[in-house]
Amino acid sequence: MRERNATVARTANGALRAVNAVAADDASSVEPFDDVNETSSPDHANHAHGLNGVSGMNGMSGARASADADEAHEPLSPDDPLAPLPFNPYKGNRGLTRAWHAMKNSLAGFRVAIREESAFRQELTLAAILIPCGVLVPVDPVSRVLLLGSVLLVLIVELLNSSVEAAIDRISLERHELSRRAKDLGSAAVMVALGMCLMTWGLIVGPLVVRWVKAWL
Q: Is position 53 within any domain?
């Protein structure tokens, strides 16, 4: 038993001396100006840097997501175009009820325009003459649509002009440069529509009228 213990002790002492010798050789091989940090491998450094970058990106994305969530829950101001419109009790109708009320409002608009707007009455009288002529004149369907559409366009633009004037008068009746400009622009739109109607009828019906006059003469 003593011999066995002595053998084990000698073996352990020999291993310790071998380890100490290897450590001494490594220490002697290191030069005085060597950087101790160079012992770490580049792959390990790159891996650590990559982990730090991924963690930083995850942190940034998390902060951005939280900021987006805060903006999503932030109430919209009344001036924001995406803000919901205030409740309008006149917009609550749906389906056939809405169509019925829209038709009644349209007829009321026609009555007001005929009663209050002399320019619309004059243009409506001109339309009452030109529309039957456009239906009876011997032209192709496309030309007929152009003739009738040009007349109806004058009425449409006049109605829009009248609505703009009514809205401006509702805001204020005092003389203002912007109010005058808005009304002048509406009148200019009506004049353009009338010029378009005259040009359409002149180009389509004019040659027919010249031919009929020559035939009678």
A: no
